[in-house]
From TrEMBL:
NCBIfam families: menC_gam_Gplu. Pathway: Quinol/quinone metabolism; menaquinone biosynthesis; Quinol/quinone metabolism; 1,4-dihydroxy-2-naphthoate biosynthesis; 1,4-dihydroxy-2-naphthoate from chorismate: step 4/7. Its EC number is 4.2.1.113. One of its GO terms (biological process) is menaquinone biosynthetic process. Residues 132-229 form the Mandelate racemase/muconate lactonizing enzyme C-terminal domain. It comes from Halostagnicola kamekurae. This is o-succinylbenzoate synthase. The gene is menC. HAMAP family: MenC_1 (MF_00470). It catalyses: (1R,6R)-6-hydroxy-2-succinyl-cyclohexa-2,4-diene-1-carboxylate = 2-succinylbenzoate + H2O. Mg(2+) binds at D182, E208, D232. The active site is at K153 (proton donor), K255 (proton acceptor). The keyword Magnesium applies.
Amino acid sequence: MTPTLSLRRFSLPLESPLETAHGRIDEREGFLVKLTDGDAVGYGEATPLPGWTESLEACEDALERAKETISEAGLSGAIEEVDDRVAARHGLTLAVADLRSAREATPLYQHLGDDALVGRVPVNTTIGDGTPKETADAVESAVSRGFDCCKLKVGVRSVETDVERVRRARDAAGPEVELRADANGSWTVEEAESAIDGFADHGVSILEQPLPAGALSGHAALRGRGVDIALDEGLLEHGVDAICEAGAADAIVLKPMALGGIDVAQQITAWVQELEITPIVTTTIDAVVARTGAVHLAASVPELPACGLATGELLAEDLARDPVLFENGSAVVPQAKGLGVSGL
């Protein structure tokens, strides 16, 4: 039986407004995607993000076209219809994966991977751009809550201040906690070199997107200075082939909702692992369906490092109760069939 597709538009306020390079975000708007075949139901989430995906209007248009297509061309035709709209495709393909794993009565991560039982996946917490003291206090609080990997937002303050923030973070965290940094493309090559030299002295493991997305050769030149280089926006702009040809990254950040689906992210994950590049699964600012899908993706991939999945607290409201418990620096993976999100 060909499933029926329905959409529900939502708007969820953030706990605090977020300033980005593309403007201020006060709420997250998107679409809950529902597939029903009479025996099982699958849910997906399409939540466009400025600068990363198509607009809300373009996403809605693509999903409405998929609704019209599915009765004649089936699921494959509907997916093809939204192929050029990454947020819409993420929502539809996640609903398909949830539906199929619900039919199989298996958790989504087992549908994506194998039958191995995975109870937890490691996660990092994100430390905002505060003063050195605020940074140290936030790291101390995160460590007391069980996190053993902290990612510091850097690049807004001076390089010297960021190095001091990292020093204070290391003092607060102790020697065993992993520290990462994310500059969101803020620096010049010279600034990045200076920051990396300071970060290396305090044991920062990964620096994410130190230069603008277009600077592949610049990122390549930053490697080998004692801190691994990860690309995020650079993956969306260039793709894996160009990154590998330039030798621009030690690690790659994968956001399923910005790449066009959990299936695309899974394929890229396997690909970069073969190339000996470390994959790191993260979310953007998403509702519970997309976040839980990313947790299942991470659980389906063996030996991932800590991933950026603990972002639900950024929302003041959500679509349903979060089935993922975060404790002791890890996400407890839902073991119910499908996504495991109920109450939608």
